[in-house]
Protein backbone atom coordinates (compact mmCIF):
# COMPACT_ATOMS: atom_id res chain seq x y z
CA UNK A 1 0.00 0.00 0.00
CA UNK A 2 1.41 3.42 -0.99
CA UNK A 3 1.51 5.98 1.81
CA UNK A 4 -1.02 8.24 0.09
CA UNK A 5 -3.45 5.30 -0.11
CA UNK A 6 -3.45 4.77 3.67
CA UNK A 7 -6.71 6.27 4.95
CA UNK A 8 -6.45 9.12 7.46
CA UNK A 9 -9.26 10.58 9.56
CA UNK A 10 -8.43 13.98 11.03
CA UNK A 11 -10.27 15.40 14.03
CA UNK A 12 -9.33 19.01 14.68
CA UNK A 13 -10.89 21.29 17.23
CA UNK A 14 -10.46 23.46 20.29
CA UNK A 15 -9.09 22.52 23.67
CA UNK A 16 -11.10 20.12 25.83
CA UNK A 17 -13.63 19.45 23.07
CA UNK A 18 -13.30 15.68 23.56
CA UNK A 19 -11.51 15.17 20.24
CA UNK A 20 -8.84 12.97 21.84
CA UNK A 21 -11.39 10.66 23.43
CA UNK A 22 -13.41 10.35 20.22
CA UNK A 23 -10.32 9.91 18.03
CA UNK A 24 -8.99 7.13 20.26
CA UNK A 25 -12.33 5.30 20.31
CA UNK A 26 -12.70 5.53 16.53
CA UNK A 27 -9.10 4.32 16.03
CA UNK A 28 -9.74 1.34 18.29
CA UNK A 29 -13.01 0.48 16.52
CA UNK A 30 -11.36 0.59 13.06
CA UNK A 31 -8.08 -1.00 14.21
CA UNK A 32 -6.22 2.14 13.04
CA UNK A 33 -3.18 3.84 14.55
CA UNK A 34 -3.72 6.95 16.64
CA UNK A 35 -1.74 10.19 16.80
CA UNK A 36 -2.37 12.77 19.52
CA UNK A 37 -0.52 15.69 17.92
CA UNK A 38 -1.14 17.96 20.92
CA UNK A 39 0.97 15.54 23.00
CA UNK A 40 4.00 16.44 20.85
CA UNK A 41 3.58 20.16 21.63
CA UNK A 42 3.01 19.30 25.29
CA UNK A 43 6.20 17.18 25.32
CA UNK A 44 8.23 20.10 23.97
CA UNK A 45 6.66 22.29 26.67
CA UNK A 46 7.67 19.77 29.34
CA UNK A 47 11.19 19.51 27.94
CA UNK A 48 11.45 23.32 28.02
CA UNK A 49 10.25 23.42 31.62
CA UNK A 50 12.67 20.69 32.69
CA UNK A 51 15.59 22.47 31.02
CA UNK A 52 14.57 25.92 32.33
CA UNK A 53 14.69 27.04 28.71
CA UNK A 54 13.87 30.55 27.58
CA UNK A 55 10.33 30.21 26.18
CA UNK A 56 11.04 32.90 23.59
CA UNK A 57 14.02 31.02 22.14
CA UNK A 58 12.43 29.58 18.99
CA UNK A 59 15.70 28.06 17.74
CA UNK A 60 16.21 26.09 20.94
CA UNK A 61 12.57 24.95 21.03
CA UNK A 62 12.78 23.81 17.40
CA UNK A 63 15.92 21.90 18.36
CA UNK A 64 13.93 20.18 21.15
CA UNK A 65 11.19 19.39 18.62
CA UNK A 66 13.59 17.84 16.10
CA UNK A 67 15.36 15.77 18.74
CA UNK A 68 12.39 14.83 20.89
CA UNK A 69 13.13 11.45 22.46
CA UNK A 70 9.49 10.44 22.93
CA UNK A 71 7.57 7.21 22.65
CA UNK A 72 3.88 6.37 22.55
CA UNK A 73 2.82 2.90 23.62
CA UNK A 74 -0.90 2.26 24.06
CA UNK A 75 -1.87 5.10 26.36
CA UNK A 76 1.58 5.62 27.86
CA UNK A 77 3.72 8.57 26.77
CA UNK A 78 7.41 8.68 27.66
CA UNK A 79 10.02 11.42 27.37
CA UNK A 80 13.72 10.53 27.57
CA UNK A 81 12.73 7.08 28.90
CA UNK A 82 10.50 8.43 31.68
CA UNK A 83 6.69 8.00 31.77
CA UNK A 84 5.08 11.46 31.55
CA UNK A 85 1.51 10.53 30.55
CA UNK A 86 -0.14 12.56 33.36
CA UNK A 87 2.53 15.24 33.64
CA UNK A 88 1.97 16.52 30.08
CA UNK A 89 -1.79 16.86 30.80
CA UNK A 90 -1.25 19.61 33.38
CA UNK A 91 -2.72 23.05 32.70
CA UNK A 92 0.83 24.45 32.89
CA UNK A 93 2.00 22.20 30.02
CA UNK A 94 -1.17 22.94 28.03
CA UNK A 95 -0.77 26.71 28.29
CA UNK A 96 2.94 26.55 27.46
CA UNK A 97 2.28 24.16 24.56
CA UNK A 98 -0.17 26.65 23.11
CA UNK A 99 2.50 29.41 23.27
CA UNK A 100 5.19 27.21 21.74
CA UNK A 101 2.82 26.00 19.02
CA UNK A 102 2.68 29.52 17.58
CA UNK A 103 6.38 29.32 16.56
CA UNK A 104 6.82 28.40 12.86
CA UNK A 105 10.23 26.63 13.33
CA UNK A 106 8.67 24.34 15.96
CA UNK A 107 5.71 23.45 13.73
CA UNK A 108 8.04 22.81 10.81
CA UNK A 109 10.26 20.55 12.93
CA UNK A 110 7.23 18.40 13.83
CA UNK A 111 5.74 18.05 10.35
CA UNK A 112 7.55 14.94 9.13
CA UNK A 113 7.39 13.30 12.53
CA UNK A 114 3.59 13.55 12.46
CA UNK A 115 3.35 12.29 8.87
CA UNK A 116 5.37 9.20 9.83
CA UNK A 117 2.40 8.00 11.91
CA UNK A 118 0.55 7.28 8.66
CA UNK A 119 0.95 3.52 8.65
CA UNK A 120 -1.32 0.69 7.38
CA UNK A 121 -4.15 -0.02 7.89
CA UNK A 122 -4.96 3.63 8.71
CA UNK A 123 -4.61 6.57 11.06
CA UNK A 124 -6.92 8.64 13.22
CA UNK A 125 -5.35 11.84 14.44
CA UNK A 126 -6.43 14.84 16.47
CA UNK A 127 -5.07 18.37 16.81
CA UNK A 128 -5.55 21.81 15.29
CA UNK A 129 -4.03 21.56 11.80
CA UNK A 130 -4.21 17.85 11.04
CA UNK A 131 -6.64 18.29 8.13
CA UNK A 132 -5.40 21.68 6.94
CA UNK A 133 -1.60 21.23 7.01
CA UNK A 134 -0.32 17.79 8.01
CA UNK A 135 -2.73 15.48 6.15
CA UNK A 136 -4.42 17.64 3.50
CA UNK A 137 -5.45 14.50 1.58
CA UNK A 138 -7.24 12.87 4.55
CA UNK A 139 -10.28 10.84 3.53
CA UNK A 140 -12.43 12.36 6.29
CA UNK A 141 -11.82 15.69 8.02
CA UNK A 142 -13.81 16.66 11.07
CA UNK A 143 -13.96 19.88 13.05
CA UNK A 144 -15.11 18.79 16.49
CA UNK A 145 -16.26 21.42 18.92
CA UNK A 146 -18.55 22.19 21.87
CA UNK A 147 -19.44 25.38 23.70
CA UNK A 148 -16.67 26.77 25.94
CA UNK A 149 -18.94 26.36 29.01
CA UNK A 150 -19.55 22.65 28.32
CA UNK A 151 -15.83 22.12 27.68
CA UNK A 152 -14.97 23.76 31.01
CA UNK A 153 -17.54 21.56 32.79
CA UNK A 154 -16.17 18.39 31.17
CA UNK A 155 -12.61 19.40 32.03
CA UNK A 156 -13.65 20.09 35.62
CA UNK A 157 -15.30 16.65 35.95
CA UNK A 158 -12.19 14.97 34.51
CA UNK A 159 -9.85 16.74 36.95
CA UNK A 160 -12.06 16.10 39.99
CA UNK A 161 -12.23 12.41 39.04
CA UNK A 162 -8.43 12.36 39.02
CA UNK A 163 -8.42 13.93 42.49
CA UNK A 164 -7.11 17.26 41.16
CA UNK A 165 -8.70 20.36 42.67
CA UNK A 166 -10.15 22.70 40.01
CA UNK A 167 -12.43 25.67 39.63
CA UNK A 168 -14.88 25.93 36.68
CA UNK A 169 -14.56 29.73 36.32
CA UNK A 170 -10.74 29.50 36.09
CA UNK A 171 -10.94 26.59 33.63
CA UNK A 172 -13.39 28.53 31.45
CA UNK A 173 -11.04 31.49 31.41
CA UNK A 174 -8.06 29.27 30.46
CA UNK A 175 -10.08 27.60 27.69
CA UNK A 176 -11.18 30.95 26.25
CA UNK A 177 -7.63 32.31 26.36
CA UNK A 178 -6.26 29.19 24.67
CA UNK A 179 -9.02 29.27 21.98
CA UNK A 180 -8.14 32.85 21.30
CA UNK A 181 -4.39 32.18 21.00
CA UNK A 182 -4.82 29.01 18.91
CA UNK A 183 -7.34 30.65 16.56
CA UNK A 184 -5.59 33.95 16.03
CA UNK A 185 -1.98 32.90 15.45
CA UNK A 186 -0.62 33.54 11.99
CA UNK A 187 0.58 29.98 11.32
CA UNK A 188 -1.83 27.00 11.07
CA UNK A 189 -4.56 28.66 13.11
CA UNK A 190 -7.38 26.63 14.57
CA UNK A 191 -10.32 26.99 12.19
CA UNK A 192 -12.84 24.82 10.42
CA UNK A 193 -11.57 24.10 6.92
CA UNK A 194 -13.97 24.32 3.97
CA UNK A 195 -13.56 20.57 3.48
CA UNK A 196 -14.11 19.61 7.14
CA UNK A 197 -17.42 18.39 8.54
CA UNK A 198 -18.63 20.11 11.69
CA UNK A 199 -19.39 17.92 14.69
CA UNK A 200 -20.78 19.92 17.61
CA UNK A 201 -20.82 17.70 20.69
CA UNK A 202 -22.40 20.25 23.06
CA UNK A 203 -25.45 18.04 23.45
CA UNK A 204 -24.02 14.68 22.31
CA UNK A 205 -22.76 11.79 24.41
CA UNK A 206 -19.32 10.31 23.68
CA UNK A 207 -20.96 7.29 22.15
CA UNK A 208 -23.19 9.42 19.86
CA UNK A 209 -20.17 11.43 18.70
CA UNK A 210 -18.19 8.25 18.03
CA UNK A 211 -21.09 6.75 16.06
CA UNK A 212 -21.38 9.90 13.94
CA UNK A 213 -17.68 9.75 12.97
CA UNK A 214 -17.92 6.03 12.16
CA UNK A 215 -21.04 6.49 10.06
CA UNK A 216 -19.37 9.32 8.07
CA UNK A 217 -16.31 7.15 7.52
CA UNK A 218 -18.38 4.14 6.42
CA UNK A 219 -20.37 6.33 4.06
CA UNK A 220 -17.17 7.64 2.39
CA UNK A 221 -15.57 4.19 2.39
CA UNK A 222 -18.64 2.67 0.68
CA UNK A 223 -18.70 5.49 -1.91
CA UNK A 224 -14.99 5.02 -2.70
CA UNK A 225 -15.50 1.31 -3.29
CA UNK A 226 -18.16 1.77 -6.00
O1 LIG B 1 -4.84 19.26 21.97
P1 LIG B 1 -4.06 19.75 23.15
O2 LIG B 1 -4.84 20.64 24.06
O3 LIG B 1 -3.35 18.66 23.87
O4 LIG B 1 -2.89 20.68 22.53
C1 LIG B 1 -2.03 21.47 23.32
C2 LIG B 1 -1.65 22.74 22.56
O5 LIG B 1 -0.84 22.39 21.43
C3 LIG B 1 -2.83 23.53 22.00
O6 LIG B 1 -3.21 24.59 22.83
C4 LIG B 1 -2.35 24.04 20.67
C5 LIG B 1 -1.21 23.16 20.29
N1 LIG B 1 -1.49 22.28 19.15
C6 LIG B 1 -1.30 22.81 17.89
O7 LIG B 1 -1.01 23.99 17.75
N2 LIG B 1 -1.45 22.00 16.80
C7 LIG B 1 -1.79 20.72 16.93
N3 LIG B 1 -1.93 19.96 15.85
C8 LIG B 1 -2.03 20.18 18.22
C9 LIG B 1 -1.88 21.00 19.32
Describe it for me?
This protein has 226 residues and is α/β, with parallel strands linked by helices. The protein has a single domain, classed as P-loop containing nucleotide triphosphate hydrolases (Rossmann fold), CATH 3.40.50. It has helices at 19-30, 37-50, 58-66, 91-100, 104-115, 130-134, 148-161, 168-184, 206-225, and strands at residues 8-12, 33-36, 70-73, 76-79, 82-83, 123-127, 140-145, 197-200. It has a 5-stranded parallel β-sheet. A 3-stranded antiparallel β-sheet has the order 3-4-5, with helices on one face. The longest helix is centred in the last third of the chain and has 20 residues, at 206-225. The protein is globular. Bound molecules: 2'-deoxycytidine-5'-monophosphate. 2'-deoxycytidine-5'-monophosphate is lined by residues 15, 37-38, 41-42, 94, 97-98, 101, 127-130, 178, 182.
